[in-house]
Design brief:
8% helix, 1 helix, 180 residues, mainly beta
Length: 180
């Protein structure tokens, strides 16, 4: 009978101490995310992921290009995609990268891309256009350049639609995901 008051006390303690709800801030509790403001409108993606590639670009010089692509599908859209790209002659490291216009350059190149899809067809395709003055800045605060490695950082810039030259400003970009 003495166990009953202890049991009631234990139940009272557990019911009084409820779990904190899952934090709605992306990047907590193991959630991955990528988001940015595009011309002031917030775009969030679901389940972004990273992909790494390594390619020999010159058989004579044995130059190698390492690439990292981070992409996510916009939440609530018809498969609109927000993508970040980085190409470099050595494996990428933590730090800042900018758009140099030539993503085959060995010194490194960053790019921001946004693709608008309607009924399964791309209707607008935004990306770098150095002749129009595009700019892409990607800053990696965590970069484990390997399969299952984590990649986290921020991005911003100006991109242009490839057919109409429509300008889009990208601000407050953030990502936190894993490489496949």
């Amino acid at each position: 009978m003495k166990q009953l008051p202890f049991f009631i006390l234990l139940i009272s303690l557990f019911s009084a101490c409820k779990k904190d709800p899952i934090d709605s801030n992306p990047g907590t509790n193991g959630q991955t995310y990528m988001s940015a403001k595009l011309n002031g409108d917030l775009v969030k993606t679901w389940s972004p992921s990273g992909l790494i590639m390594k390619a020999e670009i010159s058989a004579q010089t044995k130059d190698t290009l390492y690439s990292l692509l981070i992409s996510g599908i916009e939440t609530g859209s018809n498969f609109n995609q927000l993508k970040l790209g980085l190409g470099r002659g050595i494996p990428p490291e933590i730090g800042a990268y900018t758009d140099k216009g030539d993503c085959m350059a060995l010194e490194g190149c960053a790019g921001i891309y946004y693709e608008v899809v309607k009924n399964g067809n791309t209707v607008k395709d935004y990306g770098s256009n150095p002749t129009l003055g595009s700019a892409a800045n990607i800053n990696f605060s965590i970069l484990e350049f390997k399969s299952k490695g984590r990649v986290k950082g921020s991005f911003s810039g100006v991109i242009f639609e490839k057919d109409t030259d429509e300008r889009m400003e990208v601000t407050e970009g953030e990502f936190d995901t894993y490489i496949q």
